């Protein structure tokens, strides 16, 4: 996402909310926020409101993200069991294109995922007018929840770089992956994330490691799938800036990695004292 922070009574971000490179605003809402709650961030007041969506190249999206103050410090936790799959849910969206793109993507994804879990629901979010941003596009975000509270996600978006007139839009569509193929690819991507194991998907490994490092001086243990390049770089930065080192124990039988560390004891000293 390419969002710009604007200082208001409630933190407001504007720009691109959905693209094919970064986690979407839907993934942030369905996956990132629940991970924060696992480490003691108060759920009251922690939400994300989508006022408008924006896709490349012109953006035009706007979201509001109020975040409660952490009372003192995060909560040290042991999070190693992803348990059993419970349900799959998701959100599809479209901006300045026909809602049929959403329907095609959902139908293709269902064809692959329905045999896995019958509890499967995808919400649609068709935006028009000012809420549709300034560029046409569509996409989907999928998340699987487990019985132990893990959330594993995958998402993608397709946008049209042109679209100044109908002729340009039709020419650009010819070069894009068909909507049916987009649905199949995102379903396969979610299955790949599930297969690799761990309590978070590969996109959220860096956040998971950072939250562990910011916890009180206690032993923390988490389990992830194959370490992603981003996760590896996050571990290096955490070592350099916070002085926290993780001890890794690969599990050959599952292909996952258990990581343990001692929290840095970081505290929220800027909070107001009543």
Number of helices: 6
Low-confidence stretches: 163-167
Q: Mean pLDDT score, rounded?
A: 90
Distance between the termini: 37 Å
Describe the strand arrangement of the main beta sheet, using strand numbers: 1-2-4-3
Beta fraction of the residues? 25-35%
Give an overview in words.
The chain is globular, with a radius of gyration of 20 Å. Residues 163-167 have low confidence and may be disordered. Helix 5 packs parallel to helix 6. It has a four-stranded antiparallel beta sheet, with no helix packed on it. It has a four-stranded mixed beta sheet with strand order 5-10-12-11, covered by helices on one side. The chain has helices at 25-38, 100-113, 166-173, 179-196, 205-213, 229-242, and strands at 2-6, 12-16, 49-52, 61-64, 78-79, 85-95, 120-127, 137-146, 151-159, 219-224, 247-251, 256-262. It starts with a strand and ends in a 12-residue tail after the last strand. It is built from six helices and twelve strands. With 274 residues, the chain is an alpha+beta fold.
């Amino acid at each position: 996402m390419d969002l710009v922070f604007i200082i208001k009574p409630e933190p407001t971000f504007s720009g691109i909310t959905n693209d094919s490179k970064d986690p979407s605003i839907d993934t942030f809402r369905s996956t990132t926020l629940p991970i924060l709650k696992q480490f003691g961030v108060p759920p009251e007041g922690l939400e994300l409101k989508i006022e408008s969506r924006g896709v490349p190249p012109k953006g035009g999206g706007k979201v509001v993200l109020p975040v409660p103050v952490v009372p003192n410090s995060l909560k040290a936790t042991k999070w190693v069991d992803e348990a059993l799959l419970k349900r799959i849910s998701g959100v599809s969206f479209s901006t300045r294109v026909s809602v049929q793109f959403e329907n095609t993507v959902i139908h293709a994804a269902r064809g692959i995922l329905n045999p896995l879990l019958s509890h499967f629901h995808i919400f649609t979010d068709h935006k028009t007018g000012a809420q549709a941003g300034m560029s046409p596009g569509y996409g989907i975000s999928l998340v699987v929840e487990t019985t132990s509270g893990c959330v594993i996600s995958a998402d993608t978006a397709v946008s049209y770089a042109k679209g100044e007139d109908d002729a340009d839009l039709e020419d650009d569509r010819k070069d894009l992956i068909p909507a049916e193929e987009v649905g199949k690819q995102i379903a396969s991507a979610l299955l790949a994330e599930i297969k690799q194991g761990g309590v978070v998907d590969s996109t959220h490994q860096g956040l998971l490691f950072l939250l562990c490092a910011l916890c009180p001086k206690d032993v923390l243990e988490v389990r992830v799938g194959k370490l992603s390049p981003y996760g590896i770089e996050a571990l290096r930065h955490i070592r350099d800036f916070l002085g926290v080192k993780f001890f890794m124990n690969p599990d050959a039988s599952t292909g996952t990695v258990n990581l343990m560390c001692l929290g840095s004891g970081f505290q929220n000293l800027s909070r107001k004292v009543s």
